[in-house]
Amino acid sequence: MTIIHPIAATASDIVLALTDNDLSGFSVSPNWTFFPFMSLVSNIVGGLWALGIFVATAAWIIAAFSWVVSKAIHNSTMQQYSGIVFVWIALGMMLLGSAMAIVKFASTQALF
Which UniProt keywords are present, listed alphabetically (predicted)? Predict the structure, then answer.
């Protein structure tokens, strides 16, 4: 680190004076056991996640059934809306299914 006189140093001078070696000591990682209620929060989130997957699966099956029925009775309006709902629920289920991987990826990225 370049030594700058304390009187002449501004915040930007100090930040600009940092090198890679100065930043190597910084490390932040998630501490899942710090708070005593974290297991409860983890169980609540896991339960809500499972409920979301269950509800989305049920809605997806209903949308698929509606899409097939609308095709059989030649109802184009019902076919249009049930098809759109079917696709959006499928996209939502993909997001729900990969939620843990997304959170893990985001939480393990190095900040510095």
Answer: Membrane, Transmembrane, Transmembrane helix
- CA–CA gap between residue 89 and residue 95 (Å, rounded): 10
The span from the CA of 7 to the CA of 14, in Å, is 12
Say if CB 32 and CB 48 are below 8 A apart. no
pLDDT in tens, the chain (112 residues): 555 555 555 555 555 555 666 666 667 777 878 889 988 998 998 899 999 999 999 999 999 999 999 989 988 888 889 889 999 999 999 998 898 888 888 878 777 6
Report the b/e string of 53-88 with b at 16+ CB within 10 A. eeebeebbeebbebbeebeeeeeeeebeebbebbee
